[in-house]
UniProtKB/TrEMBL annotation:
GO terms for biological process: UDP-alpha-D-glucose metabolic process. It catalyses: alpha-D-glucose 1-phosphate + UTP + H(+) = UDP-alpha-D-glucose + diphosphate. One of its GO terms (molecular function) is UTP:glucose-1-phosphate uridylyltransferase activity. CDD domains: UGPase_prokaryotic. Belongs to the UDPGP type 2 family. This is UTP--glucose-1-phosphate uridylyltransferase. It comes from Acinetobacter brisouii CIP 110357. It holds the Pfam family NTP_transferase. It comes from the Bacteria. Residues 4-270 form the Nucleotidyl transferase domain. The keyword Transferase applies. Keywords: Nucleotidyltransferase, Transferase. Its EC number is 2.7.7.9. May play a role in stationary phase survival.
Length: 291
């Protein structure tokens, strides 16, 4: 079983300024909770029991959010606000632990993942990039399906979705002989980080969800700086693929790139209309706008 997930949260979020100037971009609210809670929930739904935050000194509010807050809980108890109390206590289920390590220098995503090496040990693990929210369309979410597939075939799983050809230079792109149908995996022939438009092997982009063997850590230690002069996870995966089968898993859910302002607004809209308490009133608000 895949029990551990790495969430790299050390990035400074320049694409989300000014909102991210004094709060982490991961703490920006999507409806009534910080964006990162959706990502943690996705991991927990896929069976993850330990979340490893790879973080930065300016981001303590993320750790605080997932910790208990004794003073707040006592106050809510005294005021008999039982619903609120239950809600803040249920942010992370009891069987899930949240731990953190620091990424001391911004040397890239591959380096961030490597910072969690000692916590991973010999186990396969998941990586979830918290800029992207993945909304499931199926009972078992995409990450859970990737984890199940890993157990079955022991091949790394890289979640992908199709993007318009002019956007391939913003993502890792995989090379496959046949495009898998949604919810299916296929062995990939290669992977490249942010290829120039017109040179990409496909339009299947890496979404930011991975199931990887522990071996990737050794490969990351040998990975030279790549695109953007950073140590790229994509380059270590390309190395892994020289010796081991690596599969591209085509997701069936929907993604929202909360690293971009429009992607973030889209996420707010989608999660708000489906919110169990606010959804109906929110739809009325949108209708009032009469755009
Ligand atoms: C990272 C990965 C890239 C992936 C993308 C998804 O890039 O390196 O392969 O496609 O996340 O959001 P970044 O967006 O951090 O530049």
């Amino acid at each position: 079983m895949i029990k551990k997930a790495i969430l790299p949260v050390a990035g400074l979020g320049t694409r989300f300024l000014p909102a991210s100037k004094s709060i982490p971009k991961e703490m920006v609210t999507v409806v009534d909770r910080p964006a990162i809670e959706y990502v943690v929930r996705e991991a927990v739904e896929a069976g993850i029991e330990q979340i490893i935050l790879v973080t930065h000194s300016s981001k303590a509010s993320i750790e605080n959010y997932f910790d208990r807050n004794f003073e707040l809980e006592t106050t809510l108890e005294q005021k008999q606000k039982w619903d609120l109390l239950a809600e803040i206590r249920q942010i992370v289920p009891e069987h899930v632990s949240i731990v953190s390590v620091r990424q001391p220098q911004p040397l890239g995503l591959g380096h961030a993942v490597l910072c969690a090496k000692s916590l991973i040990g010999d186990e396969p693990f998941a990586v979830l990039l918290p800029d992207v929210l993945v909304k499931s369309q199926t009972e078992q979410n995409d990450l859970a399906q990737m984890a199940a597939r890993y157990q079955q075939v022991q091949a790394a799983q890289i979640m992908v979705e199709a993007v318009p050809d002019h956007l391939v230079d913003q993502y890792g792109i995989v090379d496959v002989n046949t495009v898998p149908v949604e919810g299916q995996s296929i062995v990939m022939q290669g992977i490249i980080e942010k290829p120039a438009v017109g040179t990409a092997p496909s339009n299947l982009s890496v979404v930011g969800r991975y199931i990887l063997p522990a071996k990737i850590m050794q490969l990351l230690q040998q990975t030279p700086k790549g695109a953007g002069n950073e140590i790229q996870l994509t380059d270590a995966i390309a190395m892994l693929q020289q010796t081991d089968a690596v599969e591209a898993y085509r997701m069936s859910g929907v993604t929202f790139d909360c690293g971009s302002k429009l992607g973030y607004l889209k996420a707010v809209l989608h999660y708000a209309v489906e919110h169990p308490k606010l959804g109906e009133k929110f739809i009325e608000l949108i209708q009032e706008l009469k755009l």
